Amino acid sequence: MNADRSATYEFTVVGHLDARWSEWFGELAIDPHDDGTCTLVGPIADQAQLHGVLAGLRDIGATLLSVRALG
Fold first, then answer.
1. What SS3 string covers the chain?
2. What would the pLDDT profile of 41-63 be if each residue is shown by its tens digit?
3. Is residue 71 part of a domain?
4. Domain containing 31: what range?
5. Whole-model pTM?
6. Taking the CA atoms of the chain, what radius of gyration do you get in angstroms?
7. How many domains does the chain have?
């Protein structure tokens, strides 16, 4: 993937991330849900950025439920 071919990804995690994490995760919008999960959605430029987001979620102790590329 090139920077000009970024894809939109949706990451779903257990728990709610508060707004202070939005700057840390860059352009990803954080959306908490009533079921106790939270989604982060936004453009991912390449595999390096994808792995960076996954590592960031790991580093803050978030339990990852799903990752999907949105059409």
1. CCHHHCEEEEEEEECCCCCHHHHHCCCCEEEECCCCEEEEEEEECCHHHHHHHHHHHHHCCCCEEEEEEEC
2. 999 999 999 999 999 999 999 99
3. no
4. 3-64
5. 0.87
6. 12
7. 1
